[in-house]
TrEMBL record:
<dbReference type="InterPro" id="IPR017871">
    <property type="entry name" value="ABC_transporter-like_CS"/>
</dbReference>
<dbReference type="InterPro" id="IPR003593">
    <property type="entry name" value="AAA+_ATPase"/>
</dbReference>
<dbReference type="InterPro" id="IPR051782">
    <property type="entry name" value="ABC_Transporter_VariousFunc"/>
</dbReference>
<protein>
    <submittedName>
        <fullName>ABC transporter ATP-binding protein</fullName>
    </submittedName>
</protein>
<dbReference type="Pfam" id="PF00005">
    <property type="entry name" value="ABC_tran"/>
</dbReference>
<feature type="domain" description="ABC transporter">
    <location>
        <begin position="2"/>
        <end position="228"/>
    </location>
</feature>
<keyword id="KW-0813">Transport</keyword>
<dbReference type="InterPro" id="IPR003439">
    <property type="entry name" value="ABC_transporter-like_ATP-bd"/>
</dbReference>
<keyword id="KW-0547">Nucleotide-binding</keyword>
<keyword id="KW-0067">ATP-binding</keyword>
<dbReference type="GO" id="GO:0005524">
    <property type="term" value="F:ATP binding"/>
</dbReference>
<dbReference type="InterPro" id="IPR027417">
    <property type="entry name" value="P-loop_NTPase"/>
</dbReference>
């Protein structure tokens, strides 16, 4: 599904990704966790083609970014920072995206609008939306398009409790239908409850990647995360 091999990315003299390797299989919900500056957002931006990289390889379903539009159709990306056409309505913008991806199921589109309680807001200009409403529009677009993989950076930021419940419900259904999810988060309890696998990133490298059941045992993900950070620190010192 998604394979990252020996990925390196630097900004000026600072190396952000340092030989990152990651393989995500079809049907996974992978939580990508790490401290500030670990390289989570940079990794997502590299995968989605927002920024370039110096070394390594990224493939989705055997396609690299050189495949152009066919590569981009393999995923839908929900960034943490959302830039929109302020005078365009959420409804028209999602219809535009649906045309780009070749999706025509307007009935499902209307169902998702209702689930996220956006019936009134969706016809208004996106410049009038709150941050949480913009997140909902992006989630509606992602689920109605239903690409092979949905990639998200902090997907629950700005969502109200009802929208979080809808998000969990739709993620579960999307994966049951053959989809794959890759999202970064600093909310370890959400990763623990939603994800099937977790990858912990530190200083541009994966220091732990496994099924959530194998990782947890009797402990919480928070405890495992802290233990992994301490172990990696001791190893680097030795």
């Amino acid at each position: 599904m998604l394979r990252i091999t020996n990925l390196e990315k630097s900004y000026t003299s600072k190396k952000v990704l340092n030989g990152l390797d990651l393989n995500i299989k079809k049907g996974e919900i992978l939580g990508f966790v790490g401290g500030n500056g670990a390289g989570k957002t940079t990794t997502l931006n590299v995968i989605t083609g927002i920024v370039d990289y110096q070394k390594g390889k990224v493939e989705i379903n055997g396609l690299s970014k050189e495949a152009g539009i066919e590569y981009k159709k393999q995923f839908f990306f929900i960034p943490d920072t959302i830039n929109v056409f302020k005078n365009v309505s959420g409804y028209d913008w999602i219809c535009f995206l649906m045309n780009l991806y070749g999706e025509k199921d307007k009935k499902r589109f209307d169902q998702f609008i209702e689930k996220f309680d956006m019936q009134e807001a969706v016809t208004k200009p996106m410049g009038t939306y709150s941050y949480g409403m913009l997140r909902k529009v992006l989630l509606i677009a992602a689920f109605v398009i239903s690409p092979p993989i949905i990639i998200m950076d902090e997907p629950l930021n700005g969502l109200d409790p009802n929208a979080v419940l809808v998000f969990k419900e739709l993620i579960k259904h999307y994966v049951e239908m053959g989809g794959t999810v890759f999202f970064s988060t600093h909310l370890l309890d959400i990763a623990e409850k939603v994800c099937s696998t977790v990858a912990i990133l530190k200083e541009g490298k994966i220091i732990l990647h496994d099924d959530i059941q194998n990782i947890l045992g009797e402990e919480s993900l928070e405890s495992i995360f802290m233990e992994a950070q301490v172990y990696e620190r001791k190893t680097s010192i030795n």
